[in-house]
Amino acid sequence: MAVLLKRLLHPPRTPEALGRPLGRREASLGTHAGPAVRVRFAPSPTGFLHLGGLRTALYNYIFAKKHGGSFILRLEDTDQTRLVPGAADNIEDMLEWAGIPPDESPRRGGPAGPYLQSQRLALYAQATEALLKSGAAYPCFCSPQRLELLKREALRNRQTPRYDNRCRSLSEAQVAQKLAKDPKPPIRFHLEGEAPAFQDLVYGWNRHEVASVEGDPVILKSDGFPTYHLACVVDDHHMGISHVLRGSEWLVSTSKHLLLYRALGWQPPRFAHLPLLLNRDGSKLSKRQGDIFLEHFAAAGFLPDALLDIITSCGSGFAENQMGRTLPELITQFDLTRVTCHSALLDLEKLPEFNRLLEGPGMSLTQDMLNGELKKLSEGLEGTKHSNVMKLLRVALSGQLQGPPVAEMMLSLGPKEVRERIQKVLSS
Description:
Elements: H1 2-9, H2 15-18, H3 24-27, E1 38-41, H4 51-66, E2 70-73, H5 87-97, H6 121-134, E3 137-139, H7 144-156, H8 172-181, E4 187-189, E5 198-200, E6 204-206, H9 210-213, E7 218-220, H10 228-238, E8 243-247, H11 254-264, E9 270-274, E10 277-279, H12 294-299, H13 304-313, H14 327-333, E11 344-346, H15 351-359, H16 367-379, H17 386-398, H18 406-413, H19 415-427
Parallel strand pairs: 1-2, 8-9, 10-11
Antiparallel strand pairs: 3-4, 4-7, 5-6
């Protein structure tokens, strides 16, 4: 319970506010110079939020808050055939439950909205039109049957399936003739010969010669919806994203995205690809594992901070791994330059231990002993009077400025109800 009280009474401060000097590499991440730090968590609502997604969201959140920036939730719902009813609401609900609510989102709104990709189709159409005019993109008239034959032939020859770029060489007259019969073909991006090198903030210098191993990718489907590659570039540009912190599975696609940025004449953000969060046996977390969804842990009564603590303690990004850190401590101690390329192994069997550590014995105490614990907590909050702490807690628990003693209310309500009421205030 102490961790919730600390979060309620002692909100996080940025390193600048704490008066701590920033290291050279840390300062280069966008804290002082250049545009404001803006990061995004951009899941697809094809399933409910699970631990892997929570970890990506958390690292984005604590990076933004450490540098006085904004944390944005954007839902990538362009694959309309795979949408799961209720998933969009679940993602935002669980971020609020975990105590890391977005500053801008579909629910909260914001200056860079809308925050659902299905409501941003005009932006993707504009970008595609610019690429077509410059010759960086072209319509593809290949039938699904032909594309399937290409795939089967490659697999038969034990090769990686790829498009053979056939429609890239069509003349203007041929394109006009085919458009008369098929006015809404998919649009492909013309991959150039040499991909730009880039410095990933976790993996260092990278370059992937995508043109030599891939065919020209589809960026806009015939239904007007973009693929991931176009949508993320367009949205990150228009939303002013300064840093992209995402899973390492997207590292090899970054060169392709940089080619899109170059073709559109836009400045790309900085990239930091986070290593995978794995089960303790080294296997990948899967949505088929029923116990990795956040609603499972919430229903089981686990503290949100226990989940945040365990997914950071098993990974990197901090000077040392330790148990019992609060969210404000995670924010102040996080250092992106300490994130390594090694996958994090998650041992969920230790979660009850984290939960007990964060819960503490407070709710099993007598009223007098609990009063003593609350007084100790107040003394640990610099520049805060005990009477003001009690007033804030009373309002959080009862909504009233006057009433019974806080310790009496806490014992009467019970630990679960106290947690829920404080969490409600934290997420409002």
